[in-house]
Write a structure and sequence with these properties.
The structure is a homodimer. By secondary structure, chain A is α+β, with helices and mostly antiparallel strands. The first copy, chain A, folds into two domains: about 130 residues, PurM-like, N-terminal domain (60s Ribosomal Protein L30, Chain: A, 2-Layer Sandwich); about 160 residues, Phosphoribosyl-aminoimidazole Synthetase, Chain A, domain 2. In chain A, strands 8-10-7-11-9-12-13 form a seven-stranded mixed β-sheet. Chain A has a six-stranded mixed β-sheet with strand order 1-2-3-6-4-5. In chain A, strand 1 and strand 2 form a beta hairpin. Chains A and B meet through helix 1, strand 3, strand 4, helix 3 and strand 5 of A and helix 1, strand 3, strand 4, helix 3 and strand 5 of B.
């Protein structure tokens, strides 16, 4: 019987026995956390599954992958201290292709004063990258620390990256969608933001799998109910426009689109920052699940985001 | 122009800028080394390239991969503190297959009191594993520390793992080859041995790519000449027999067969241990390259081991 992602992780977590007293948090958060504040995360990206070279340069493929992996470091309130790259490379890959890919990865590392510190390179029929990022933190933040009474906040815009991906894919007027395309092509992880907000953050996750799914992780791991206020969601005008242009349901698009790599967190009060966009989008209460308050009505919001093992994906990518 | 592995690593090392003062050793050894003794290594394994399920159970696929990755931790004289798994899994993979794979990985972790501490799981047309292992050491040993006047030593037997792989593949009498097959299926990394020998080790590498290639890395990184004494090599009788049976050139087989995951190191004097096999197999001198002393004659030994990017592989696997 084939298994979905959640079931697979559950199975793996049961088999992978905990042995080390050095590890505070193993499987189950954005990254593993060691007693000394070391944070470790690993992510794989495969051509045709996670990226499409028909509309992405190789430097962008590399940059995006590093952004996505470092976002898990941000989601623990840590700063990165190294990136490790397992490269799966098709035969006859040109020297300049390799160069472009690594230049893209190195450029993102340079923004955070970190580096590609090691890796492996193997032959493969398909281009792929498995990245591991290490980070350090003195004040880790976990998914499990949201408390009833908290406000729910998010940085940036909801579903902006997916807006950019579809604009690129469908060759829509790229000027209007420039900001969205940039968020898709190079979603700079919110590391600086996380470190700045850290003292006031309780529960924290990054939005990689879609708002409904990621909020669901916060709710489950913290054992709380999360209520999202539809009217408060920071939606970019170009996202509304794209949904009109492509005939997509805006609400479904907002709740299921992944890879924004923004911070979704809870805090005692709604936060504001003069340096970057943070928006209060809901609240935390006793109970369970994710709920949506819309026009005075409350309804359950089921996870409709990205399942990496796919067959039951609620919202296949258009 | 397609590139070979050495050229690719050279290119990557040039692009990947060094930025962090926390990193003592980045690209260029078995693992990266941080100032606080943290050691990090990453390795990828792909079905059809690195393993063949027609004669390996999934638990063995998992166990072998963890053994190979932890061997890089041994090669830095470190003890493992965690394994991270990026799993690439074909659609319709059964629950019990996943279970078997992770049981195999967990079993090797348990031998060293470590654990699968995190990972990622993605859909892929082909089964693959990208593993990252972390280790800690107070006395790291590098490839670059061999000194003229040292003795060259190796644990275990040369080319025993490849003997086992071919015995399995060709369905040869498995009783005779049991020890060799075991070394192929589950090449327990020499972590305990490395920690015990540490105080007397100068330069150190593990034998993953074949004796000629791995000795070449020691020679190049240390800026020395390595002379291997043909008569001293620890060759198992079953390896001699296999070469006869399959019509393979024994010498070529010894110098090019990889994945033994033994320790190859230099020391002020030849070491012995009552607990495990260590053999003095050569010496270190001023100069460069790897040389073979055989019947009183000295000849240059070119790297004939495994090139992970393949087209120029000197010795394609039979």
């Amino acid at each position: 019987m084939p298994v979905g992602e959640a079931k697979a992780i559950e199975l793996i977590a049961r088999i992978a026995r905990r042995r080390s007293r050095e590890i505070v948090m193993g499987i189950g958060d954005d990254a593993a956390l060691y007693r000394d504040g070391l944070v470790v995360t690993t992510d794989a990206y495969l051509e045709g599954v996670h990226f499409d070279r028909s509309y992405l340069e190789l430097s962008a493929v590399g940059a995006r992958a590093v952004c996505g992996t470092l976002s898990d470091i941000a989601a623990m309130c840590a700063r990165p201290i190294g990136v490790f790259v397992s490269l799966m490379v098709p035969p006859r890959t040109a020297r300049r292709d390799l160069r472009e890919l690594y230049l893209g990865m190195d450029a993102v590392c340079s923004l955070f004063d970190t580096e590609i510190a090691g890796g492996d390179i193997i032959a493969s029929p398909r281009l792929g990258l498995a990245l591991t990022a290490l980070g350090k933190t003195r004040a880790p933040r976990l998914r499990s620390a949201a408390r009833p009474g908290d406000r729910l906040c998010v940085t940036g815009h909801i579903a902006l990256a997916e807006t950019g991906r579809l604009a690129l894919k469908h060759g829509l007027n790229s000027k209007k969608y420039r900001r969205a395309i940039e968020r898709h092509v190079c979603p700079i992880p919110r590391i600086k933001e996380a470190l700045r907000l850290a003292p006031r953050i309780h529960g924290l996750i990054d939005t990689s799998d879609g708002l409904s799914t990621d909020a669901g992780h916060l709710a489950t791991e913290s054992g709380v109910r999360i209520v999202i206020d539809r009217a408060a969601l920071p939606v970019a005008p170009e996202t509304v426009e794209l949904c009109l242009e492509l005939g997509l349901d805006l609400d479904r698009f907002l709740f299921s689109s992944g890879e924004d790599y923004e911070l979704l967190f809870t805090s005692q009060s709604a936060l504001r920052s003069p340096q970057f966009a943070v928006t209060g989008v809901g609240s935390v209460a006793r109970g369970s699940g994710v709920w949506l308050r819309d026009n005075g009505k409350l309804r359950r919001l089921r996870p409709s985001g990205y399942d990496h093992l796919g067959p039951k994906r609620a919202n296949p990518k258009p």
